[in-house]
Amino acid sequence: MSNSGYRLSFCSSFWRTMSSAFLRTLLALLLLTLILQKSDGQFEEWCIADEQTPDDELLKALNWACGKGGADCSKIQVNKPCYLPNTMRDHASYAFNNYYQKFKHIGATCYFNAAAMITDLDPSKISKKSQSHTTLFST
User: CA nearest 49: which of 104, 137, 130?
Assistant: First the structure.
């Protein structure tokens, strides 16, 4: 008596199950990718401090964003995760972007009296060519 029919049936069943599991996994990954995409079809964008803006103007805009503007600036305080680099430009960029992301859905802009600009390049992934070295909140 030969077992070849049993082996063939087992192998065929095994590959059907594996193929089915693979397709389900692939379908789940595709669905997850679609869900994680921005629903409005736009690219991600950040509001950052304009490199041409003097530090005194950045400070005014930073104070507005963190005060009346309603940005959450708690993470750029001393010993907090986004405090470093401790420069006017970096802290202003954080505050501007926090404000913009928080309120753009209700019409907020990235203007800050011409101290800011929109970029589609993730600022956390860009090497900075020039940077203001004005220290903030020194102790």
Answer: 130
